[in-house]
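Hello everyone,

My group is preparing for a crystallization screen and wants a predicted model to guide construct design. The compound we'll soak is zinc ion. Before spending weeks at the bench, it would help to have a computed complex in hand. I've included the protein sequence and the ligand's SMILES below. Output in structure-token form would be ideal because that's what our pipeline reads.
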Amino acid sequence: MKTETIYYEEPYCRRFRGKVLSCRPKGKTWQVELDRTAFYPEGGGQPGDQGVLDTVNVLDTKEKDGIIFHETDRPLKEGSYVTGGINWPLRLSRMQEHTGEHIVSGIIHRLFGFNNVGFHMGSECVTLDLDGVLTQDQLHVVELMANDAVYQNKKVEITYPNEEELKKIDYRSKKELTGAVRIVTIPDYDVCACCGTHVSHTGEIGAIKLIGFLHYKGGIRISMLCGIRAMQDYEEKQNGVAAVSALLSAKPGEIAGAVERLKESETQLRQENAELRHQLLERKAETLVPENGVFCIFEKNLKGDDLRSFCLELKKKSRLSAVFSGENGRYQYALSSDDDSRVVGKALNAAFHGRGGGKPELVQGSVQEEEEKVRAYFQALSEK
Ligand SMILES: [Zn+2]
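Reply:
Good plan to model first. Here are the tokens for the complex, ready for your pipeline.
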């Protein structure tokens, strides 16, 4: 027997009484069937409702062949009567976003002739896929117009036209429809076949905000938020801007310029810092003396460029220079030799579980061995 639905006749029904017709376990949850329900089952891009049946949680709602199943975290007694309660903030948010999506899709269809070919109400935002490309400026116009539709507080009309009447109506639909078709009309903005739940007047949407778009399958995918979630998003962004503004001691409207100046200053400091490190290593190289023409130096916290330039600096006054940096038996190294550095490096790698390579003048790599053993290795080399 098909479940009696309440959500179409009374989309604002949050509480209702129903009889448990069946309750079957499914994995770690239960599938509860009632004689009647106000829980909207997943469909038309809108996720299934959540809420409670007495004290049992409803995690999701799905429909199959006209029977609606409430996925619960605990079982309910068959034959008993329960009170259903819809998670209303969640459902209202979905009604706001579903109705907002109609307005946006309707405006785009009328202005540009593109179709909404994919609609998803996600946990982060709503996405809407178009079969054509719009620019940022065009989307901005769409957003302004969509919010104008909200301010006008238009009544959202739901009708079930017969076959003859339906032929005369120009409506948006993702597929060929048969049987009783539910038409959702927002006067002057959109006519669409839809099975979802909507607010009764557009003013209840509160706000429609297009938060981004990207190119997708030859068209674009728009991300949007409405009402409750648009406000949450505004709150989060405002908090973020306020925090950045305080950190930079800049007015909220001027933080982008302040960050740009900060980045320029950072780049300059990095360059100055690199130059100073280079000078320091040059001075240090001047004070060091090779042993039998060989340098084996261990330095703390030398990376990439510094390791390389220090090694080459030392090479100027030796026949072989090797600089190591690291700790606990794991070292990065740079090595430069009068002989082919690649051959010397290869022998070093073979001796100490190393890897790396480079050019005849310089090789870089890493080894895994105690400092003392590496030093002894170069001591032996210097005595050859
Ligand atoms: Zn809809």
